[in-house]
Design a protein that fits this description.
The complex is a heterodimer.
Chain A: H1 2-40, H2 45-60, H3 63-73, H4 86-111, H5 115-123, H6 128-158, H7 170-181, H8 185-212
Helix pairs in contact in A: 1-2, 1-4, 1-7, 1-8, 2-4, 3-4, 4-6, 5-6, 6-8, 7-8
Chain B: E1 2-13, E2 16-27, E3 31-35, H1 42-49, E4 57-62, E5 65-70, E6 76-78, H2 81-88, E7 91-94, H3 106-116, H4 122-135, H5 151-163, E8 169-173, H6 181-196, E9 200-204, H7 208-214, E10 217-222, E11 225-230, H8 232-237, H9 242-252
Helix pairs in contact in B: 3-4, 3-5, 4-5, 5-6
The chains are: A mainly alpha, B alpha/beta.
The complex binds adenosine-5'-diphosphate and magnesium ion (MG).
Chain lengths: ~220, ~250
């Protein structure tokens, strides 16, 4: 018990890094995903193709590979070669990757709204942006809540991939402790930490779903 | 004055000719019923009037303002963006599938466009909406979500929602076709009341009783052409056109 108490401060520090990456990724990738989805269903064929190519690329390759590429690969690219610190590099890779997944979720959501909703809005004089903001997206949010919830919980666990960038997130901190102390207890504590985070998210999403179900 | 003047409307979807030179005139306060077999282009005609579909040729003048015209060289010219929206939204539309906004209460459905499109104050739009709900007999449902309403109630809300924009003209596309027979009456009654208040209406319908009693003029369409038009008596008692005779026989069975 004393041992557990003694490692908790370090593990909390690791958790802070994990949560930072998690929140920044969510806050950036969801709006980006919405914009991509709107482009994906827009009238411009070149835009639709470009975005579906993007989605195909980002969903078709491992996130780990993308992460390594942004961190170690980008600096070697001629002209635009940039070298980033580990945190911005991780954020960039995670946002680009998760935006692709969110794009697909939102696209499916937008396309499930009956065309009659757009037509009703149009006959009432609403323009495209009013129709999207006030009529389509609020209905989409309700539909996509379960898949977004899934994706978000996956992200909590995916953040552990950044241990390859030598960042001291929860997982790497844990591993260091295990190696230092020859004790596997930190693994169990880490599991509990991850569980608490995902449990909290599950709870929040359940509440959101209840809120949105009022019009059923 | 004419509220709607449509001349020589042609519309095709790719290779499919749907409207082949339709003429339609609707006077102020007139109720025009459009009847005809399914697939004859009735919905498409209504949707061309309010620009849900764009035409391939012809002229549409709403309340003296040109929505679209066609030059001698065959060039179709719509009024510029905002103008054509303003002209098209002089017409309210009621759909077969109601198309209420499911995430909004009845009241929110009614005030959405008055507040966000016409920029009217919420309090005023709400008073107006409540008066309309009273008129269609659904005031006590103002805070209910559409899914809790019967089809007939939903359609009456949809009518009230269209009226909340104070349209000059109302277009109805088979407003009772997706309702159980016992619910059509309440919707038809609402429409009848509207006609008695001299609303200009174009009603695509399979309700021959309604067409007979309420319409000033009945138009029979088939194959994208107006085959015959006239007063209800002319159309229902003395039909000349063979297609019309066959159509009437088929629905009276
Ligand atoms: N958006 C569309 N794209 C292609 N064909 C269409 C479209 N809308 C209607 N049509 C076709 O046009 C014809 C007339 O349809 P419609 O106007 O709905 O007839 P009605 O309302 O008289 O039943 C039908 O053959 C229908 O399949
Ligand atoms: Mg139709």
């Amino acid at each position: 018990m004393d041992y557990i108490l003694s490692i908790i401060p370090q593990m909390l520090m690791g958790t802070v890094d994990t949560l930072k990456l998690f929140f920044v990724t969510i806050v950036l990738s969801i709006p980006l995903g919405i914009f991509l989805a709107m482009g994906r269903v827009s009238a411009f064929k070149w835009l639709r193709s470009a975005i579906s190519g993007y989605v195909w690329l980002l969903r078709g390759t491992p996130l780990m590979l993308q992460l390594l590429f942004v961190y170690y690969g980008l600096p070697f690219i001629p002209v635009i070669g940039i070298r980033m610190d580990d945190f911005p590099a991780a954020v960039l890779a995670f946002v680009l990757n998760y935006a692709a997944y969110f794009c697909e979720i939102f696209r499916a959501g937008i396309q499930s709204i009956p065309v009659g909703q757009y037509e009703a809005a149009r006959t009432l004089g609403m323009n495209y942006s009013q129709t999207m903001r006030r009529i389509v997206l609020p209905q989409v949010f309700k539909i996509i809540l379960p898949p977004v919830s899934n994706e978000t919980i996956t992200l909590v666990k995916d953040t552990s991939l950044i241990y390859v960038l030598a960042m001291n997130d929860l997982l790497r901190t844990t591993r260091n402790l295990v190696q230092r102390d020859f004790n596997i207890m930190p693994f169990l504590v880490a599991a509990v930490f991850y569980l608490v985070m995902t449990l909290f998210l599950t709870y929040m999403f359940n509440r959101l779903e209840k809120r949105f179900s009022r019009y059923d | 004055m004419k509220k709607i003047e449509a001349k020589q409307i042609y519309k095709n979807f790719q290779d499919l000719q749907v409207l082949k030179g339709i003429d339609l005139e609707v006077g102020e306060g007139e109720v025009v019923a459009v009847i005809g077999p399914s697939g004859s282009g009735k919905s498409t005609l209504l949707r061309c009037l309010n620009k849900l579909e764009t035409i391939n040729s012809g002229t549409i003048i709403i309340d003296g303002e040109t929505l679209v015209s066609t030059t001698a060289a065959g060039q179709v010219q719509y009024a510029p963006g905002n103008e054509s929206i303003r002209i098209a939204t002089k017409m309210g539309m009621v759909f077969q599938q109601f198309n209420l906004f499911p995430h909004m209460t009845v009241l929110e459905n009614l005030i959405e466009a008055p507040v966000h499109v016409q920029k009217r104050p919420v309090a005023e739009a709400t008073r107006d909406a409540e008066a309309l709900l009273q008129k269609v007999g659904l005031l006590e449902k103002r805070d209910v979500y559409p899914r809790r309403l019967s089809g007939g109630q939903q359609q009456r809300v949809a009518i009230a929602r269209a009226l909340a924009m104070h349209p000059d003209i109302m277009l109805f596309d088979e407003p009772t076709s997706s309702l159980d027979p016992e619910l059509t009456g309440e919707v038809l009654k609402t429409m009848r009341n509207l006609a008695e208040e001299n609303m200009t209406m174009v009603v695509v319908t399979h309700e021959m009783g309604f067409a007979k009693e309420v319409a000033r003029k009945v138009i029979f369409m088939a194959d994208g052409i107006v085959q015959e038009q006239g007063t209800p008596v002319e159309i229902f008692e003395h039909p000349h056109n063979e297609r019309l005779q066959a159509f009437l026989k088929s629905i009276l069975k």
